[in-house]
TrEMBL record:
UniProt superkingdom: Bacteria
Residue ranges crossing the lipid bilayer per the database entry: 51-74, 95-114, 306-325, 337-356, 368-388
Organism: Poseidonocella sedimentorum
Name of the protein: Membrane protein involved in the export of O-antigen and teichoic acid
InterPro entries: Poly_Biosynth_Transport (IPR050833)
Record keywords, A-Z: Cell membrane, Membrane, Transmembrane, Transmembrane helix
Membrane topology designation: Multi-pass membrane protein
GO cellular component: plasma membrane
Flavoprotein listed as a keyword: no
Length: 428
């Protein structure tokens, strides 16, 4: 029954959150391992081109469907009455219709681009795998709305990082420096493996929509597009920064910023784990108007964010010499960029879990406006920073964009009379 997940015991929610945290940690560790191996094995130009092409492909998986699947939870929860099952089935079917139409247009565009601009073949080949990743995104979102969160999310989190890591590790064991085509084929293979993993972990697609359930396609798309900026900034942070940096940086510079992002992303993951672990309790405290309990939860969340920043930054500085030895001399600038990118978890700690409060209070307008402002700022700051200051400039632009995003969320909470989530919030 759709919506039954809302009544699950807190213990079940905590267990689910624990598995999700472990999966995200494993994915971050595998991605970091792949990045370190590629930094040693592949020429910076090959590494940077693969990183940019893969990031564009994964971002395109969101745009391919206009994020229609992004509102799955909303559409599952809002349906009621005797036609609820038919209405949701109509929405579900329309997600796959949009996916098929978008995939056909994308593949035709890739073929045309490869013919007209042969120099763009890496991006065209990477985009050829995008429908597979878009399919996994649709199935994972729908699974979450149908109370199959782990079955949908775990394969999506783990499969691509694991397949690419194993492939690159095999090249390392063989003493072979992978060429660009081999890396792009790994990206495609990971998409196929992800499709197979979802086929095994999720039940077969249910019946088609019942007669009389007319799909509200425009409503589905409006909801998905409204949620897209926030989901892109949160779930696709690394891919977004790399794709934007590729607009103004050479492939070798993209490789540098990719390494720096992989190092800092572990700190951001540790901070986001606080939201995963405490999100359900924060939502419950807000719904009960439990001011004392909410204050304690927000204080704990801020402490986790600040602790992750301090421990992560100290570890990065302490391990600078071993990391430089591991990465090699060509990637020495990446360590300096990692220090700049520490500004992202810094602003995350300064403004606290503002986005979590917006989400818990279902203030969709505030969420959309702050995310749109952050996405616009990032879209301008990263390429402009790259043009003006190279890879360090692009890193500084990323920090500026995310600072604006986090500040906008924090300010929206203050305007709405919500609790102050900032690090310097006064107790009470």
């Amino acid at each position: 029954m759709i919506g039954a997940r809302l009544h699950r015991p807190m213990a079940a929610l905590s267990l689910r959150a624990g598995w999700m945290m472990l999966a995200r940690l494993a994915a971050s560790a595998l991605t970091l391992g792949t990045t370190l191996l590629l930094a040693r094995l592949a020429p910076p130009e090959v590494f940077g081109t693969f990183s940019a092409a893969g990031s564009v492909s994964l971002l395109a998986a969101v745009l391919l469907t206009l994020n229609i699947e992004g509102g799955a939870l909303f559409h599952a929860a809002r349906r009621s009455g005797p036609d609820a099952a038919a209405d949701y089935a109509a929405y579900r079917a329309r997600c796959f219709h949009v996916l098929c139409a978008g995939s056909a247009l994308l593949l035709a565009g890739c073929a045309a681009a490869a013919l007209l601009r042969p120099d763009l073949w890496p991006v065209a080949l990477a985009l050829g795998a995008t429908p597979l990743y878009a399919l996994s995104r649709v199935r994972a979102r729908l699974a979450g709305a149908e109370d199959l969160v782990l079955q949908g999310a775990l394969p999506r989190l783990i499969t691509r990082p694991a397949v690419v890591f194993l492939g690159v590790a095999a090249f390392a064991l063989a003493g072979h420096a992978p060429v660009l085509l081999q890396l792009l084929l790994l990206h495609l293979l990971a998409g196929l493996a992800l499709t197979a993993a979802h086929h095994l972990s999720l039940p077969s697609d249910p019946r088609p929509p019942q007669r009389g359930s007319a799909p509200d396609t425009r409503g589905y798309l409006r909801t998905g597009l409204a949620l897209a900026p926030g989901q892109i900034l949160g779930e696709n942070r690394v891919n977004l920064i790399i794709a934007l940096a590729a607009l103004s940086l050479a492939p070798s510079e993209i490789a540098q910023i990719t390494v720096a992002l992989a190092l800092v992303n572990l700190i951001v993951f540790a901070q986001s784990a606080a939201d995963t672990a405490l999100g359900a309790r924060v939502s419950a405290a807000l719904s009960r108007s439990d001011t004392a309990g909410l204050t304690q939860l927000l204080r704990l969340n801020r402490a986790i964010r600040l602790g992750a920043l301090i421990c992560g930054a100290a570890s990065l500085l302490a391990l600078r010499a071993p990391l430089l030895w591991l990465l090699g001399a060509p990637f020495a600038p990446a360590m300096d960029m990692a220090v700049i990118l520490l500004g992202i978890p810094l602003t995350n700690a300064l403004f606290g879990p503002a986005g979590l409060v917006i989400q818990a209070q279902a203030r969709r307008r505030d969420g959309l406006l702050s995310a749109a402002l952050g996405l616009g700022a990032l879209g301008l700051a990263v390429p402009l920073g790259g043009w003006l200051g190279g890879a360090p400039g692009a890193a500084a632009g990323a920090v500026a964009g995310y600072a604006i995003f986090h500040a906008a969320q924090w300010g929206a909470n203050l305007r709405a009379g919500a609790p102050d989530t900032g690090l310097l919030a006064r107790p009470g």
